[in-house]
Amino acid sequence: MHKTPPTFQDPGLADDGYRVFQRVFLRALLGAAGSVSGLFVLADLMGINHLGETQLLGTVVYCLANVVMLSLTWRRALYVPLAAILVLASFAIYTLALVSVPGDELRIVWYFLGIGGSYILLGRWVGLAFTVASIGVILALNPGLPIPYSRLSVVTITLALVSCSIISLAVTAYAQGVYRQLLEANRHLRSLSLVDPLTGLPNRRLLDDRLRQTLAEGGRHPQQTFGALMFLDLDHFKEVNDTLGHQGGDALLIEIGHRLRAQVRDSDTVARLGGDEFVILLPLFAPDRDAALQGAQTVAGKLLEAVGQPYTVDGHVVARTPSIGLTLFPEPGDTAAAVLQRADAAMYQAKADGRRCLRVSKGGADRAPLQTGADLAGA
Q1: Closest by Cα among 316, 290, 286, 308 to 232
Q2: Under a CB-based contact definition with an 8 Å cutoff, are residues 316 and 244 in contact?
Q3: Which domain holds residue 292?
Q4: Which of 4, 137, 185, 349 could lock onto 359 through a cystine, CB 3.0 to 4.6 A?
Q5: Which pTM value belongs to this model?
Q6: Element (H, E) at 224
Q7: Number of domains present in the structure of the chain
Q8: Can you tell me the distance from the alpha carbon of 51 to that of 36, in angstroms, rounded to the nearest whole number?
């Protein structure tokens, strides 16, 4: 079995939004590192700041490497290797400066910048590793430096590096926590925009999206893939609100949503458009159109029976029946709006025929619905 290779990134940080931030940060670091190293090279060539032959060569290579890596950051799959190369190359150039530029007492500061960058780019474990490696290199190389740091300076540098690491870890963890909260809030808001807040069913927006998907699938396989759309409206629902209040009406709508969902497959969609209007979308795979229509009518009959059973709302027994309009699609030139319009027209025909029944549209947005269908007790 194929296994995904491990990466340096912390678990839970593979979200696209956070990775976008990391890629932007990587580009900023590469640009800054390339620019700063280029300025060091320029200063050496102008005689302003002498790096030494070894350090100059290393800085030139480092500058060019940053430029090349910056040009590759637009390839998303290369993020982790590029970030790892940057961290390792930075550590190497900092260590080279520590050994080759003894006159620069502040060269140790570069390790502090590397710690913060490694935490952000590759997570806490790489940040901790960078911290430990920095302290280890300084302790190991300091005695052999042309101008070694004093024992007190080494202690101060070590404590400062540890403090920098702790602060970087805390700030990064806090930033990741804030990001996750924002991500969750965004997901919640998106969910609210797609779901009816009362029943928890898909709303008009999500229904339109799924209807378009079903239409597209039917267009690709017109001889085998069909869709059925049912427009269901409760008969005399206003009387429930008048007698039991809106709270009782809401309770009834919630129960109707449960009954509708119980009668269809997980792949089907039961949506509430508002008020007492529900829409049921059935993707159908059938050998021909007649078989698809027969399957849809069978489901519609179950819905008529299930929704028409009595309800108990706030201690009151309530009996309400549905009227259902059904249309099959795709028709030539069909759109989501046209399919909904046909099903809606068929539902109004069911209302006109006495309610508590199913009416099936002939098909075609400009045709009247065909007065055939399944009745529970006759229209």
Answers
A1: 308
A2: yes
A3: 204-360
A4: 349
A5: 0.55
A6: none
A7: 2
A8: 14
